[in-house]
Amino acid sequence: MAAERHFDPATAEVALRGLRASRKTLPAHLLYDEEGCRLFEAITRLPEYYVTRTELALLRQIGPELRERVGPGAAVVEYGAGAPTKASLLLAALDRPAAYVPFDIAESAVVATAEALRERFPGLALHPLVGDFMDGVALPDLPRPLLGFFPGSTIGNLDPEAAVRFLGKVRGALGEGGRFLVGVDLPKAPEVLVPAYDDAAGVTAAFNLNLLRRLNREAGAGFDLAHFAHRAVWNATDSRIEMHLQSRQRQSVPVAGVPVHFEAGETIHTENSYKRSPQAFLTLASQAGWHGEALWRDPDGLFSLHLLAS
Ligand code: AVJ
């Protein structure tokens, strides 16, 4: 478990930069502190949040075909390995996988994920790797074939430019013959999307507002959480769900000693969740040098898994 974090000049600087812009934004990764990760886990179990259960069912369904395509003795590299459930399913589907690399920015996450798999897959070599996968950290020496794994539609956090950059880094790291299995959430009716990001129980609201509590602690901020409301907005032009924190009133909030002014109704944009059709995703993948080898969708057309090849 990570220690409780107090004032952190880097967080304060990042927060102030975003809050002093004419359109206020905060980087989405700030949502995922310890409490944020706990709340996100709760989101994945909400009735409105179709993403996780749909992807898990799809992974189960495509196991045999994936096993056939990937072949024996693969090494799996998971980008953003926060929990062992999906890797466990994938490894169980593959033909005698040789190695697993959980790669995440949170050391506690990669260690816990590796531990959880050790007992279940005794012969599997485990290489936990800590780092920011946007930086493209070099991989250890691994048996081939290499299969990258990026589930959960986490790629939906990245705008098109960042997604192409990330896909290119992974392609470089996996090298010749590498494949990449990516979970991509599909565009769908706002009547389905908005409740998935603004649930009746208020868990997503708590997840979003927790960012302000984090800034109070780590950026020396004085946010009153009762003065902000969670908003989930479908942006059809950019095909993304946006999460915002909306100021309920005109107010001024100190952040690291600097007053930040809010008009009533003004928002802080905290996260994007892009929804991409197969064509839209494959266009980005091809800009990074990948081509689509296989594509699977659940029967209701909610979610997709792409298998990319170099
Ligand atoms: C972790 C980025 C995949 O976009 O669905 C869920 C984050 N935010 N509900 C998503 C999230 C609010 C989630 N990702």
UniProtKB/TrEMBL annotation:
One of its GO terms (biological process) is methylation. Pfam families: Methyltransf_33 (PF10017). Its EC number is 2.1.1.44. Keywords: Methyltransferase, Transferase. InterPro entries: EgtD (IPR035094), EgtD_Methyltrsf_superfamily (IPR051128), MeTrfase_dom (IPR019257), MeTrfase_EgtD-like (IPR017804), SAM-dependent_MTases_sf (IPR029063). Residues 15-309 form the Histidine-specific methyltransferase SAM-dependent domain. GO terms for molecular function: L-histidine N(alpha)-methyltransferase activity. PANTHER family: ERGOTHIONEINE BIOSYNTHESIS PROTEIN 1. This is L-histidine N(Alpha)-methyltransferase. It comes from Teichococcus coralli. The lineage of its organism: Bacteria, Pseudomonadati, Pseudomonadota, Alphaproteobacteria, Acetobacterales. The gene is egtD.
